[in-house]
Amino acid sequence: MNTLKELYNERLSRIKKAIKLEKTDRTPVIPFGDSFFAKATGVKLSDFALDLDISNKVILDGSKQIGNVDAVPCAFAPAPLMGSIFFSNLKLPGRELTDDMLWQIDERQIMTTDDYDTILSKGFEDFKKDYFAARINVDSSVFCEIVTNGPKWNKNMRDEGYPIYNNVTISHPIDYLSGGRTLSKFMMDMRRMPEKIQAVMDIIADANIKEMKQAIKKTVDPISVFIAMGRGCPDFYSTELWEKFIWKYLKKITDAIIETGVTANFHADANWERGLDYFKDFPKGTCVFETDGTTDIYKIKKKLGGSICIKGDVQAAKLVLGTPDEVYNYSTQLIKDMGNGFILSSGCSIPPNAKVENVKAMVSAAAGK
C-alpha cells in the first residue's frame, strides 16, 4: 500500500501528465467544492465561511468522504474575501445572512469615474488598500491570517496525500471594475472613455501579475494559477470590445503565467464558444480550460482538444437533481469522449445542496468503479 507521500506524488504526476495532454493511468478527478463540503460534513455554512481553520478541516474531511480524488481545489475557503474580487460588499452566513445561506455579492455602484484618475495617479496597490479599508466590508485581518496560516493549511492537505490544484489566483481587471462600477455602468465607461479604461486596466494587470509571480515563488508544488474571469465572457460584448478590453489582458496575464512554468487555468463561467479560437494562441500543454457546463464541452474538445487540457463538466443540475447512475454514466461518457488531456470535475463549484451520493458517483467514474 502506498504511503501518503507516494500517493501525493502519484496524484501530482497524474494531474501534470493530463495537463500536458499525455496518457495517464486513469483520468484525474478534481471536484471544485467549497460550500458543498460543509453540507456534506454537517458543518454550518456560517462556521465554514467565518473560520478559515474550520474550512481547512472541512475541505480535507469532505475530500476524503467523496472518494479517491486527485487534488483539492484549495486548502481553505476565503469566503470573507470574495467581495474583494469584485470591489463589492459581501453578505456572509452568520453575519448578514442566516447560518446556512450561501454567501452573496452585494453589487452596487461604489466606484466613481473619478477613481480611474486616482488609479492612474496613485497606482493600483495603494488605491486597492484605501478602497478595501474605506468602502467595502473586507476584513483586512483575514489577509494577515492567510499569510500567517496559509502554509500550515496547505501542509495539512499535502501531508494527507492531496496536491492543491489552485495554489495561486489572479483576477482579470474586468472583475474589479465591472463590480465596483456595476457591469452596466462599466460597459458605458468602455464606450465613453476607452483610452482611460485601457490605461487603468494596464496598471491593474501589471500589478496583479507582479503579485501573482511573488505568490508562485512562495508556493510548494504550484500546479495552476486560477484566472478569475467571470465577467469576461464573449457573449457579454461585441467582438471589438471583447478583443480590446478582455482578450488583450487575458492574453497578457496568461503569457505571464506560462513564463513562470506554471499552468494557466481559465475558469470560464458562462458561454465562451465565440472566443474558443483565440485560445489556440497558447503553447500546447500549458493551459487548462475549466468550463462551468454552459460552454458545450464537445465544442471545446473540437476546437482546443489538441492543445489545451479540458476540465469539467458535471453540471450543477445533475449533481442536485440527478441520480448516482445518471451522474456516473455521464462522467464515464465524458472520460471516454475527451480522451487524453482531460480532468473530470464538477461544472464550476459543486452546489451546497448537491447529493453526496451523486458527487461520489462522479469521483468513482474516474476510477472505473
Automatic annotation (TrEMBL):
GO terms for biological process: porphyrin-containing compound biosynthetic process. Residues 179-366 form the Uroporphyrinogen decarboxylase (URO-D) domain. Its EC number is 4.1.1.37. It holds the Pfam family URO-D. InterPro entries: Methanogen_methyltrans, UROD/MetE-like_sf, Uroporphyrinogen_deCOase. Keywords: Lyase. GO terms for molecular function: uroporphyrinogen decarboxylase activity. It is an enzyme of class 4 (lyase). PANTHER family: METHYLCOBAMIDE:COM METHYLTRANSFERASE MTBA. This is Predicted Uroporphyrinogen-III decarboxylase-like protein. It comes from Clostridium ljungdahlii (strain ATCC 55383 / DSM 13528 / PETC). The gene is hemE_3.
